[in-house]
Amino acid sequence: MNMLxxxxxxxxxxxxxxxxxxxxxxxxxxxxxxxATVRDQVVQELGDLALAISxxxxxxxxxxVTGHTSSVSGSQFVDQTDFCDTNVDTAGSEPACINVxxxxxxxx
Length: 108
Description:
Blueprint: H1 2-9, H2 12-54, E1 60-62, E2 65-66, E3 71-72, E4 75-77
Antiparallel strand pairs: 1-4, 2-3
């Protein structure tokens, strides 16, 4: 009976466990916010990369070449603008043609 009373009155572990729950909760909330920020920045950088790739000048041409026994006629290619190409690319602006929409689930 004496040992049962000691266990009942012992509160040494209670303070430590409640502190750990509080610290764990704060850490989990920080990780969730951090991961959401990382997600947004990754989407932004991928959009910037797509915009940079779309702005590469793909126009090339070469004239005809004539050798000793053969000849090659020239070729030319001109890149046409896409439906969402823009000439404005400022730092921090949203990527062109990328729309991220988050909707709440219905009926849950």
